[in-house]
Design a protein that fits this description.
Layout lengths: L7 E4 L4 E5 L2 E6 L2 E4 L2 H8 L7 H11 L5 H17 L3 E4 L1
Antiparallel strand pairs: 1-5, 2-3, 3-4
Helix pairs in contact: 2-3
Length: about 90
């Protein structure tokens, strides 16, 4: 599965952001994923308003010391992982 740069990722039904012992987490049915650093930055933008391209652009600015291509590849890989885990849906 590849992620369309013009799609708008949003949390899938049954998934939501939460907090556990002051740690941000992505709550999914029967599991939770601890979020920090880049993962938190990515998931917090998965609200259906931002396109994948916009998320990549913002994080390339935020992590400007990293190679832009590397940032893009990492984001796309993480979004694909969350899609496989059924944590994200993509609106076109």
């Amino acid at each position: 599965m590849s992620v369309d740069l013009n799609s708008r990722p949003r949390l899938a039904a049954g998934c939501r952001m939460g907090e556990n012992n002051k740690q941000r987490v992505l709550l999914m049915p029967e599991r939770a994923l601890r979020l920090n650093g880049p993962s938190l930055e990515i998931v917090s933008r998965c609200d259906g308003k931002y396109t994948v391209a916009q998320i990549i652009g913002e994080l390339q600015l935020l992590y400007s010391k990293a190679e832009p291509h590397k940032v893009e590849q990492d984001i796309l890989g993480y979004l694909e992982l969350l899609q496989k885990e059924r944590a994200l849906d993509f609106d076109v």
